[in-house]
Every structure is written in C-alpha cells, then in structure tokens.
C-alpha cells in the first residue's frame, strides 16, 4: 500500500483522537445547573493535573453532583472509562487497516489488552468509591487510589510496547494520542480522589 494511502486512512483517526481529547460528557447537562455547583466543580478541578480538561468534562454534571466530592470523583472515573473505551476502539481499528506489519499488529494487540485492563481497574475504582460509607473506609479509599493509578500505568505500558518495535510513525502517533486521553482523564480522576476531603 502506498504511503499516501496509509496517510489517508490514519488522518481520520487522528481527527477522532483529537476530538476524544476534549472528551464529551456521558450525558447532557441539566439546563438549570446552579452557579454554586459549577463553582464547586471549578474549585475541585483546580487541584487536578489538567484543570481545563477537568472543567470541560465535569462541569456538565454540576447539577447532579451538587457539592458532593465523592459523586464528583465517581463521575470523573466514569468519564475516564468512556475515554478509555473510545481509545480502545481507535486502537482496534488500527489493527484492521491494510498494510499493518506483524510488529505493529503484535504491539496493537498488547495495547488493547492494556487498555482493557485499564477499563476494568477504573470500574473497580468506581466500586471502591461506592463503599466509602463502609467501616473499612480507609481501605476502600486506598483501593480507589490504587486502581485509578493503575490505569495510568496501563496506558504507559501500551506506549512503551511500541518503543522497541518497527512501527510506522503515523501508527505510533495515533497510539500515543489515544493513550494521552486515558492518562489525562485518569490523572484528573486520581487527583480528585487524592484531594477528596480537601476544603
């Protein structure tokens, strides 16, 4: 396959990744969201690694989160799950493209596994956050932090898997951008969990 043809196949994927990097909310925000709730989200987002992305993805949920820090963390984790799933679809589609080498195919398979692990861990983090009212509150909070942190490690593992293999730069770029989405959303969720009880 000619390089120009491969570029034609990959450029739309890049556009999708750029769109995902500005991850849209899982649901449409209520129109009657109160300024006080929006300010709460803004204040919380100030402690995150990527505050602008945090505001964009979480402000639409202000009216349902209100001033509940735990709910905000859970929403952030769910947004990260959606971002990871979207990234997984993009990576999976790469594998279907003609002209993908066996080295690229192997790295893509490993990457998909890493991302799937990340989605599972984010779900476990959500589950742990739902048990903060239990007697083992500190244990559950520790688990939530551990699982949210693990998804960042999974995304890094995916990109590391391409370093020692012969991979088309365009393919590698799509992978890097896709994993960046997961890392940013996961980092924001982890930051919110780490600062859960801050005022």
Automatic annotation (TrEMBL):
Cross-referenced Pfam families: PMEI (PF04043)
Domain Pectinesterase inhibitor: 36-192
Leader peptide range in chain numbering: 1-29
Family annotation (CDD domains): PMEI-like_3
The organism's place on the tree of life at top rank: Eukaryota
Keyword Signal: yes
MF GO annotations: enzyme inhibitor activity
Keyword Ribosomal protein appears in the UniProt entry: no
Keywords: Signal
InterPro entries to which the protein is assigned, alphabetical: Invertase/methylesterase_inhib (IPR035513), Pectinesterase_inhib_dom (IPR006501), PME_Inhibitor (IPR051955)
Protein name: Pectinesterase inhibitor domain-containing protein
